[in-house]
Amino acid sequence: MREFSREIKKIVIKVGSSSVTHQNGGVNIERIEELAKEIVNLENKGIRVILVSSGAIATGAHRLDIERPRGDVSAKQATAAVGQVTLMNTFLKAFAEYGFSIGQILLTRMVETNKIMHENAENTINRLIDMGVIPIVNENDTISTFEINFGDNDTLSAVVAKLVDADLLLLLSDIDGLYTNDPRIDEDAKLISEVSIIDEKLRSMGKDAYSKVGTGGMATKINAAALCMERGIDTIIANSIDLKNIRRIIRGEDIGTIFKGKTNKNGEAFKNIK
What we know:
The protein has 274 residues and is of the alpha/beta class. The chain has one domain (10-259): Acetylglutamate kinase-like (Carbamate kinase), CATH 3.40.1160. The chain contains ten helices and eight strands. The protein has an eight-stranded mixed β-sheet with strand order 3-4-2-1-5-7-8-6, with helices on both faces. The longest helix is centred in the N-terminal third of the chain and has 24 residues, at 73-96. The chain starts with 9 loop residues before the first strand and ends in a 15-residue tail after the last strand.
């Protein structure tokens, strides 16, 4: 069984577009209901959860019956505005079945550099948690530009994990974890269970692995893990094909790849480092 660097009391779960939408971009209601069930089960155990969800652009394009925009920034922003409403309505209904409320948080990268925005985001998310509300975070696509966007929700989820000093970041997508080589072309590629140091050799393993639907690939997940490791936060990359993997991971089962948070000389995870 795995041992985590910290006792798991607060967790950030990031789900990719492939976890909450169908291949055509339509909302996958069944999957969102399953996800809500897993999160509520953690909440009932006393583990606070912040959800980072992708899928707004894909969902909006499906809703508008148009091709998913790629290069047109304003089209992507408008499509995301439509899709975000659709996603949140689905999450609202799914969590309401279990008596839970949700709160929407839309962030830009300025939350990292602007002290007031950083404090406001931190205070809002923590207050929602204290109130028993499930915070659902996404990038504010409607106003983000190249200078202030995250570009992928893997990075966003790592920023959120640091913001709230989470004990674990769980990155769920259609990727099993980090392999020694691209498993699509190398049948001998092996899944790496644990990583304690991220070096250039390890980064090279993730350069070509990508998700079928979302914008983030393995490289962005490794970068997200690196951000969290410096704060003593464990990160796990796992496949969301079976959302029961969430409960299995929390139990300590060896699923996906864990990136171990750094510890001090006493073996304790670094915490509360600004």
